[in-house]
Amino acid sequence: MPIIVPVTAPAPVRAYSGFDYVTVDAEHRKVYAAHGGSGRLLVADADTGKVICQVRVGPMHGSAPDPATGDVYTGNGTDRTVSKVDPVACKSTTDVDVAGPIDAITYDPFYHRIYADEDGGNRVFVIDARTMQRVGTVTLAGHDEEYLVVDPVTHVVYQNVPDLDEFVEIDPKTMRVFKTVKTPMLVSNHPLQYDAMYHEVVVGGTNGVLAVYAPSGRFIAQTTYPSHVDQCDLDQKRHLLACAGRGTIAVLRLHRNAAPTLVASLATKHPIHTLAIDPKTGYIWAVWASANGSGDFLQRFRLTS
Question: What pLDDT does residue 202 have?
Fold first, then answer.
């Protein structure tokens, strides 16, 4: 049976406390983590694990790399801004104001658009990454938002709405919601991913249920996984979904038109709730701030064969 094992010991990073979403730029070999307690973006080398720098941007929650340029965009929480960051120079180069606090963000390289959802609100702000100007606002029915992803083929945006136990689909041309999909088996939708090869939406609730839907809204299957998962990240090549919540890392394998299956899980004994999986190496990157105040850490894990 596969198991999840650490590749490196926990690497201490300058302690500011409080992490949120983690992302990996596989092309430019960078790991990004929102170090929200400090208002900084943590930048690490995806091959060595070395922390390169921490860039002050604001009390951020999410980041989204541009695979073409290597720049990374950050959603800066209550500062109500989105920033473009040069991770080589380790500095923020451009900021754009938005009308609300930002939680998660995603980037569509086809339209050169940044989508940033409103933390505790009902809007998704749309920003042109070439001009760093806001070009639209999508208004939703709910008043809570949690994670969003883009279909790389159709460019439809999928957005979780936890307070209504649903996700919505946003048309990139009209920048309006065109479909609402109820997820009655889930409580407070949190993780959300899209498998581009299987053409399936994978969405989880804090109640320990993970559900799979077709883009049409057709329910496919469901399974159990650890409760109170905050972030899941999908390795599109291997169809492996890495999830984190309350210190547990779980890896599930997606199957076409079927329920995901649990491959392995690990109780880390650390307050890990966010992570990302590197699609090049399959390594899992996790961050946490110790509950006892002993420090903030970055660590790399792998799934054994």
Answer: 98
List per-block mean pLDDT (blocks of 10 residues) for the chain, which spans 305 residues. Answer: 94 87 97 92 95 95 96 96 97 96 97 97 97 97 93 98 97 97 97 98 97 98 96 97 97 98 96 97 95 87 93
According to the model, what pLDDT value does residue 15 have? Answer: 75
Alpha carbon 3 to its chain's center: 23
Rounded Cα gap, residues 118 and 13, in angstroms:
29
Determine the distance from the C-alpha atom of residue 286 to the mean position of all C-alpha atoms in its chain, rounded to a whole number.
12
Q: For 79, phi and psi rounded to 5 degrees?
A: -70, -15
| Distance, CA of 175 to CA of 47 (rounded, Å) | 37
Whole-angstrom distance, CA of residue 156 vs CA of residue 174: 11
Q: What is the pLDDT of residue 157?
A: 98
User: For 111-218, where are the alpha helices, taking DSSP H only?
Assistant: none
Contact of 163 with 206, CB cutoff 8 Å: no
Q: What's the pLDDT score for residue 305?
A: 82
Residues facing residue 213 across a β-bridge? 201, 219
Residue 123: closest CA among 107, 109, 103: 103
| CA distance to 58, 80, 135, per residue, from 61 (Å) | 9, 11, 22
What the chain holds in terms of domains, given with CATH numbers, is: 4-303 (2.130.10.10)
CA atoms within 13 A on the CB side of 74: 34
Cβ burial of 131 (10 Å; 0-12, 13-18, 19+) is exposed
Position 1 scores a pLDDT of: 86
Cα 212 to Cα 201: distance, rounded to the nearest angstrom: 6
The CA distances from residue 128 to 110, 158, 267, in Å, are: 11, 18, 41
Quick one: pLDDT at residue 19? 94
Total residue count of the chain as it appears in this document? 305
